[in-house]
């Protein structure tokens, strides 16, 4: 198991998630109006945003001083939230140039997310769906572990409140931002 302080690297041999069909219903779906608190102090309603928005949903960011939940590395697609967030940070200017704003989304509280956003120097807000309102309204794929309900890793490209494209499953997570950027460049007009 990777030490808790090494959140930036993916350990070798992680199980690869398979497409279980849990996101097939999302392309073409209108995002429901669900205001979510953001780490920048605003409230964001993804349904009301114009243009292209990239929302990467992730299970949970790790904490440098704590081990992950028991069995975390054995859950396909669970490990990698910090590398994924850092990749979106590193590609943020290119994603903006391609016409997309970026948000991260998890079921963690805003305070928990704020610590991660500050520590990772994220130039975009993280959205909290701690009450699972958006998750349930959109039937986003989830899993449960250690008493938590967490989103499976997926990325939505939303245009004017409608899901235009879905990346699911996402693996490896540190490549997701580059994959999204390549897709946006091949599908201009956001």
UniProtKB/TrEMBL annotation:
Keywords: Antioxidant, Disulfide bond, Oxidoreductase, Peroxidase, Redox-active center. GO terms for cellular component: cytoplasm. The keyword Cytoplasm does not apply. One of its GO terms (biological process) is cell redox homeostasis. Residues 25-189 form the Thioredoxin domain. InterPro entries: Peroxiredoxin_BCP/PrxQ, Redoxin, Thioredoxin-like_sf, Thioredoxin_domain. This is Alkyl hydroperoxide reductase subunit C-like protein. PROSITE patterns: THIOREDOXIN_2. Residues 1-30 are annotated as: Disordered. GO terms for molecular function: thioredoxin peroxidase activity.
């Amino acid at each position: 198991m990777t030490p808790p302080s090494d959140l930036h690297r993916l350990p070798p041999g992680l199980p690869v998630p398979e497409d279980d069909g849990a996101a097939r219903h999302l392309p073409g779906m209108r995002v429901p109006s669900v205001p979510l608190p953001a780490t920048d102090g605003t409230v964001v309603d993804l349904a009301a945003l114009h243009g292209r928005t990239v929302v990467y949903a992730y299970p949970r960011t790790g904490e440098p001083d704590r081990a992950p939940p028991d069995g975390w590395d054995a859950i396909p697609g669970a490990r990698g939230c910090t590398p994924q967030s850092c990749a979106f940070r590193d590609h943020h200017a290119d994603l903006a140039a391609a016409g997309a704003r970026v948000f991260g989304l998890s079921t963690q509280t805003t305070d928990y997310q704020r610590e991660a956003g500050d520590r990772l120097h994220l130039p975009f807000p993280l959205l909290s769906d701690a009450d699972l309102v958006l998750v349930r309204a959109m039937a986003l794929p989830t899993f449960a572990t250690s008493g938590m309900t967490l989103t499976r890793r997926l990325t939505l490209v939303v245009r004017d409140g409608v899901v235009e494209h879905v990346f699911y499953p996402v693996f490896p997570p540190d490549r997701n931002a580059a994959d999204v950027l390549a897709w946006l460049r091949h599908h201009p007009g956001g």
